[in-house]
Amino acid sequence: DFEAGHLRGAYNIPWEDIGCRAFELPARSEPLLVCHDAETAVRDRVAAWFDSCSERCRWQAELLPMTAEVLALGSPLVEKGLGTPGKFLFAASPLLLQSWPLLEALVQQAKALGHQPRALDIGSGSGRDAAVLAAAGWHVTCLDRDARAL
């Protein structure tokens, strides 16, 4: 159970949701540590899912069973509770990252006037940039021609 103990800074995606939340994973070029229940059947199922991804879409996943030794209480590597709100495994688009200082200044101006900053994300796809903006306090409206993407 994630709340009972997990590696510090970990991000939780329940296994039953992985298929529809894979967009939350980091870029495929980034290493990914996947923690899972210690049972062999669980490890085999997790490994099979990552192996089933085509070569072009395969993550650099390293699997780590969450054993009692890994989750030893008192370890500085282990924490309890929910994950950090607004923390994502993925990064915003390069354009959004490049524009971040300007966007932060706009947020401060809007808040000083008692307003919430607003953003329109056109072609939002899975909504990564929208999620990053919303976590930073923006009211975001998303548009995409493919309704399944939203």
Termini, distance in Å? 29 Å
The main pleated sheet reads as: 2 strands, antiparallel
- Overall morphology: globular
In the predicted model, the low-confidence regions spanning at least 5 consecutive residues are: none
Helix content: 25-40%
Number of strands: 6
Order of SSEs, N→C?
EHEHEEHEHE
Q: Mean pLDDT, as a whole number? A: 85
Question: Strand pairing plus helix content: what structural class?
Answer: alpha/beta
Number of helices: 4
Radius of gyration, CA atoms, in whole angstroms: 18 Å
Our estimate of the beta-strand percent is 15-25%
Keywords:
29% helix, alpha/beta, 4 helices, 150 residues
Brief sketch in words of this structure:
Helix content is 29%, strand content 17%.
Question: Could you characterize what this model shows?
Answer:
The chain is α/β, with parallel strands linked by helices and 150 residues long. Helices cover 29% and strands 17% of the residues. The protein has 4 helices and 6 strands, in the order βαβαββαβαβ. It has helices spanning 18-21, 40-52, 94-112, 128-135; strands at 6-7, 31-36, 60-65, 78-79, 118-122, 139-143. The strands form 3 sheets. The chain has a two-stranded antiparallel sheet. Strands 2-3 form a two-stranded parallel ribbon. It has a two-stranded parallel ribbon with strand order 5-6. Strand 2 (31-36), helix 2 (40-52) and strand 3 (60-65) form a beta-alpha-beta unit.
